[in-house]
Amino acid sequence: MAGWEGRNGGSFRTIAVLTAIPILGLFAYIVFRAIYPKVEPIAKTIAERKTTPQAKPAAPPATKPKPKGSIVLIIDDLGFEGQPLDRVMALDPDINFAILPNGNRAAQIADRLNDGGFEILVHLPMEPMGKESPGENAILTSMSDAEITRLVRENVRAVPHARGVNNHMGSRATADRRVMASVIGALPEGMYFVDSRTVGQSVAEDVARELNVRTAARHVFLDDVRTTFAVRQQLAALAKMAEERGIAIGIGHPDRVTLDVLAAEIPRLKARGFRFLRASAVVN
Question: What is the pTM of this model?
């Protein structure tokens, strides 16, 4: 009996183990299927992150440079055949041009600049202190008021489309109150006068204000010394003054060195926040 019982006990244990295996397998499968839907999206998401290119972060919007100041730039002494007109016109649309009325191409150059939308001034020849000649039809201190009036009007007519006047030379004439009263008084209605300030004793701006003519005065000459280094220094001084005061007026000439510097530096100044204005926008 004991031997039989041992054999039967072993058989039952074998049957129980064999029966439990599929039951445990089924239980494991049910548990796995219950978990799998939660695992699959996580695994899929991880796989997608590895294979899908990630979008680059959007670049920050471009910001405009903070306004620095306004520059009025007048190019003097135009009016003659052979001058680099295309080059000066390419500098900036708001550059101002002063044309000598006694130039041999004064009217033609004025027409072309006007067609290009530029602002034009009459570069009125006036008597200097020294012996250098200001050219034909210059305003002299020895002239009567009537002679000055006639010459001013004749010079203005020689430069069509002009909106204002500035003096060419004139260190002696602009220091003479009587002469300047005649000059300013002879200007057509609406014309402004920019004092080139070729001498510290100039009364031109003061007289213009007394006569209720819009006016302003030059702050910096760019090219008294016509070297690249000197012109760059003067342009930097003009920009600094514009930043400090809000507005600064500079005068230059259509020479190669000056134009080289302006062509290189104007875009940089604008990128820094400086803007270029027409003279008519700043006279008051």
Answer: 0.78
